[in-house]
Amino acid sequence: MLSAPMCLKPALLTVAEELWTSVIVYSTALLKATPQDFKPVPVPGGIKVRSVSSADVQRIHSTWEFSYEGSYTYFEECVRHHPSVYLETDSGHYVGHMLSTSYGTMGMLYVNPDFRRKGYAKVIVSQLTQKKFDRGEDVYVVVDESNSASQHLHESLGFTIVPAGTLVWLWCGPNPFDKMTC
To answer: Which partner from 30, 73, 87, 88 sits 20 to 30 angstroms from 54, CA to CA?
Structure first.
């Protein structure tokens, strides 16, 4: 996996296509939150917030659109070493989650379809953002350029687009994440 500035996309794509038979290109925007601009959202009644546990990794692996065999291990490492948020109802029904990644951003936001359009994504992002602020960490999120709903969600919480923060991710070969660690 390679993350690179947008201006290098044509050259990197040319090289990648010459070297590997399978190449996936994924363009993303980088957004940042600062403590002074952050607009936290309270946790509604009937909802519990906790960190993602190792027992939750299979669920997270099954919800990520880019999952592959080796990503399970990557998620385990992220959960073990970085802040995360897992939302569930008081009765134990899964609402959603978000992880911090090995490269310093928040990602893999997911809300169970039964709980969508009720503000839970904002609660999840808000909770993880606050955890990272409490640890003295900078808070960034990478959002697919075509996912305007996610971009708007983060902007509504005070995130702003980082100028020249467009990243191009290239996944090359049959399993480019094999050696990924946190």
So the answer is: 30
